[in-house]
Amino acid sequence: MHNKIDNLFSHLWQDYLTITPSAKKVHDLLEGYEFEHSGKSAKLDNDHIALRTFNIEKINLDKLAAHFLALGYTEQGQYDFAEKKLRAKHFEHPDDTQPKVFISELIVEDMPAEVQQIILKMTDNIADNAAQQDNFLYSGTHWQTSTQEYDILVAHSEYAAWMSAWGFRANHFTVSLNHMGHFQSLAQMNTLLKDSGFVLNTSGGEIKGGPEVFLAQSSIMADKIEVQFANGRKLVPSCFYEFAQRYNMPTGKLYQGFVAASADKIFESTNS
Question: Containing domain of residue 65, as a range?
């Protein structure tokens, strides 16, 4: 089973790297810094990945989650983002060395009519059994949209616009600060990232959350990549890298969940 999990995350990671050049740079920077200051080679641990979709029956959150449930994951939390018209769930594996999974979906019927039309046109072409395919979670787009349609989506939902350009793939990976030897705090890591030229997501502050909610998160802004739309090319935000530090709860156990108020701001790492 672990081989299957490793295989899935390996495919997701390789796909993510193809459109997130900064991820490799961040990865190398942190590993190099860790080695330089501790003398030990560091393997970056992935705290969680995030996936996005629409609440359309054949490709909804539960259809994506089924891939992880089949690998032994279980649902551990539900989250609502009323302003962004999103809902989400997170999943954990009994073996806590496996990454957590955060899956969100846009509530299409809550969007303006013109946005609904574009989304339905995009998703109409998807085969009814597409979400059951082994490679679905890193299958990208199943449609062609125009730059005009992208602009309409951006005006109403950065999330929907991101989906129109990128489809099904990991929206971000997350470095677990807890598994690093040298870094003591997210602030220390953020300083290194900024000094190295990376732009942080400052929505809700550079660090979202903290010890009081048992989880601190930060992220760099998404790379901008040129996408071929139906009628031409356009530079749009792709994916980003996140960083998480988890704290012990009063029970003495490390918090494993997510904080809706922080996640709400992390979504904005792909804002254009």
Answer: 2-270
The Cβ of residue 3 has, within 10 Å, a number of other Cβ atoms equal to: 7
- Residues whose CB falls within 8 Å of the CB of residue 154, separated by 6 or more in sequence, listed in order: 161, 272
CATH number of the domain to which 32 belongs: 3.10.180.50
The pTM for the full model equals 0.97
Number of separate domains in the chain: 1
Would you place residue 34 in the very low, low, confident or very high pLDDT band (cuts 50, 70, 90)? confident
Cα separation, 78 vs 103, whole angstroms: 10
Residue 78's beta-bridge partner residues? Answer: 89
C-beta of residue 246 within 8 angstroms of C-beta of residue 215: yes
Residue with token string 């992220």 = 219
Measuring CA to CA, how many Å separate 240 from each of 64, 75, 185? 20, 24, 20
